[in-house]
Structure formats: structure tokens, C-alpha cells
TrEMBL record:
GO cellular component, one term: cytosol
KW DNA-binding (keyword) present: no
Start and end residues of each RmlD-like substrate binding domain: 1-292
Pfam families associated with the record: RmlD_sub_bind (PF04321)
Known EC number: 1.1.1.133
The keyword Chaperone is assigned to this record: no
Protein source organism: Halomonas urumqiensis
Names of the cofactor(s): Mg(2+)
GO molecular function: dTDP-4-dehydrorhamnose reductase activity
Name used for this protein in its record: dTDP-4-dehydrorhamnose reductase
Pathway(s) where this gene product acts: Carbohydrate biosynthesis; dTDP-L-rhamnose biosynthesis
Source organism phylogeny: Bacteria, Pseudomonadati, Pseudomonadota, Gammaproteobacteria, Oceanospirillales
Keywords recorded for this protein, A-Z: NADP, Oxidoreductase
Similarity remark: Belongs to the dTDP-4-dehydrorhamnose reductase family.
BP term (GO), one: dTDP-rhamnose biosynthetic process
Length: 298
């Protein structure tokens, strides 16, 4: 099976390369070979290579920058998925796509279900929602995984920023009123492979939207404290301790794009369809942190 993987150099894409090669031949063109902002280039590539499965891990993910670059964000997050979905519908092949907790307005404190009302607060969230809607409207076979707070041992992310700051500073202020679930890119790739295995080889996985995150919930402050606790337990020298991480409200950390306060995700649909129990976010963090420390020591 010929698989197109977009965004193979990103956090999730990097992990997907390892998982998807278990299912077929992965073609993962780099940005220099295929600029996904160029609609004609994408059409030409699809015609030339005729993939039998598409996994779209590419996106415009600079949440704050999207406020000043809405056209580019829309092209990558809405029009590209629509274009890939049109191809998948015509070829009757599966399209896997990744979406975000930022499609929700983040009101209340109840965990969100896949069919809860959307209401993005930012250009990034709005364009991600447009992508989800375009895929559903195309009628193609699709798995849309809505995930949150993605991090990995590679790329730029909160875990790596905190570890760097925690080595430099003896106290930090971190937002404590946004609640969500930190999700490692590796877990996203593993679940994708599991779901695709069922979707491709059985008829057990229905097309649609699935929340994908580990179990549990925390704030960014809670996430930071756990990073420092686990890093210290893994013999890392830090200037900061969890006790020296002060929680602040979002209002004291203004950003160009507004973030939802409530990003708790109900995982029942994924767990039921895949017959898995999602692991605790703290256990996933311990694994990813160990991987980062190992990478840094090489
Ligand atoms: N990061 C999060 O916290 C988060 C949270 C929820 C959902 N998600 C979703 O999860 C998915 C994966 O996110 P991620 O964190 O892995 O993203 P990422 O690390 O930012 O990777 C994005 C990928 O898209 C590629 N890309 C962007 N514009 C391109 C273009 N014009 N041509 C070719 N390639 C282009 C990038 O290529 P280069 O490497 O060349 O830049 C990169 O490989 C996305 O759909 C995202 O919206 C992410």
C-alpha cells in the first residue's frame, strides 16, 4: 500500500513515519519537494503518485502567528484537507487528519464530547474547524483525531521550553486556569496505526471524529510541575523546583490568539472503538521525558 504522509518532519509526522511503515510504503515529501501551500503542486503530486492512503499531519500550527497570517493558515488547515478529502473520496481511500481542542469555545468545566458545540476563539481554531467540516462534507472515508497540547522529544513544545527554563531560572510563573491534557506525538502515531489497522483490514472503525489524548487532566502549571518532578527523579540538574512554579491566570499572560480555558476531552468513543484504555498523561510524560534526556545525552 502506498501511503502519503504530509508533515513528516513535524512532531506527529516524525512519529508517524515509524508507525506507518508497518502498514505500507510511506512517501513523505519534504517541504522542498512539495509545498503544501501550492494547490496545483499538491494536485500534480497526487496525480503522479496515486497514494492509496493519506495521513495528513501537516498544518499551520503557529497559533499566535495565524492571527496575522490568516490566508496561509486557512490554506494549510482548511483548503489542503478539503483537497486531500476530494482525492480520497474519488479514489475511495482513507484520509487520516488531525484536529484540535481549539475548535471548541472552552466554556464550562465538563469534558467535551466529539459532537459538542464548536466555537473557535482564534484563527487557528477556526481554520482547523473548517478543515474538519470540509472533510466530513466530502463523503470520503476519514478518521479525524482531535488532540490537545502536543509535545515530543523533538521539535518546539512546552515540555522542552519548560526544561530549558527550569535549568536557567529558580522560579517561574505558569498559567493555571487553562485545563487540558498533554498528549505526546508518539501516542498519537501509535493510536493512528492501531485505528488504521482496524479500518483497513476490518470494517470495525467508523468514519468520523475521535478525541485522542491520554487519560486525566491538568493545567499548564500542573504540566510544568510534573515535568520538573519527573526530571529531578531522572537525575536532571534543575534550578527550579515544583514548589517554585507560581500559577497565574491567563489574563496575566496575554497572547495574540485567545485559548480555550476548558480543553478536557471525553475519550469514550476512541476507547470503545479501539478497545483500548488510554494511559495516564503522567506516565506518557515520564516516557517522553526519558526519551528526550536520552537524546540530549548522545
Ligand atoms: N502542536 C499542538 O499542540 C497541537 C494540538 C492539537 C492539535 N494539533 C494538530 O496536530 C497535527 C500535528 O501537529 P504537530 O504539532 O506535529 O505540528 P508541527 O510539528 O508544527 O508540524 C507541522 C508540519 O507541517 C509541515 N508544513 C507546514 N506548512 C507546510 C508547507 N507549506 N509545505 C509543506 N509542509 C508544511 C511542517 O513542515 P516543516 O517541518 O518544513 O516546517 C511540519 O512538518 C496538526 O494538524 C495540528 O493542528 C497540534
Amino acid at each position: 500500500m502506498k501511503i502519503l504522509l504530509t508533515g513528516g518532519n513535524g512532531q506527529v509526522g516524525f512519529e508517524l513515519q515509524r508507525q506507518l511503515c508497518l502498514l505500507g510504503t510511506v512517501l513523505a515529501p519534504r517541504r522542498q519537494e512539495l509545498d503544501l501551500s501550492n494547490e496545483k503542486a499538491v494536485s500534480h503530486w497526487l496525480e503522479q503518485h496515486r497514494p492509496e492512503l493519506i495521513v495528513n499531519a501537516a498544518a499551520y500550527t503557529a497559533v499566535d502567528k495565524a492571527e496575522s497570517e490568516p490566508e496561509l493558515a486557512r490554506r494549510l488547515n482548511a483548503e489542503l484537507p478539503e483537497q486531500l478529502a476530494a482525492y480520497a473520496a474519488k479514489q475511495q481511500c482513507w484520509l487520516v487528519h488531525y484536529s484540535s481542542d481549539y475548535v471548541y469555545p472552552g466554556t464550562g468545566s465538563m469534558p467535551l464530547r466529539e459532537d459538542d458545540k464548536t466555537g473557535p476563539l482564534s484563527i487557528y481554531g477556526q481554520t482547523k474547524l473548517e478543515g474538519d467540516l470540509a472533510i466530513a462534507a466530502s463523503g470520503c472515508l476519514h478518521l479525524i483525531f482531535r488532540t490537545s497540547w502536543v509535545y515530543s522529544a523533538r521539535g518546539n513544545n512546552f515540555m522542552k521550553t519548560m526544561l530549558r527554563l527550569g535549568r536557567e531560572r529558580d522560579s517561574l510563573k505558569v498559567v493555571n486556569d487553562q485545563i487540558g491534557v498533554p498528549t505526546p506525538a508518539r501516542l498519537i502515531a501509535q493510536v493512528t496505526e492501531l485505528a488504521l489497522g482496524r479500518a483497513l483490514f476490518t470494517s470495525h472503525t467508523p468514519s468520523g471524529i475521535y478525541h485522542l489524548a491520554p487519560a486525566g487532566e491538568t493545567s499548564w502549571q500542573g504540566f510544568a510541575c510534573e515535568i520538573f518532578r519527573l526530571a529531578a527523579a531522572q537525575a536532571q540538574r534543575l534550578a527550579v523546583t515544583p514548589e517554585r512554579v507560581e500559577g497565574i491566570p491567563t489574563s496575566q499572560y496575554p497572547t495574540p490568539a485567545q485559548r480555550p480555558l476548558n480543553s478536557r476531552l471525553v475519550l469514550n468513543r476512541l476507547e470503545h472503538e479501539l478497545k483500548v484504555t488510554m494511559p495516564r498523561w503522567q506516565d506518557q510524560l515520564a516516557l517522553t521525558l526519558a526519551e528526550l534526556i536520552d537524546l540530549e545525552s548522545r
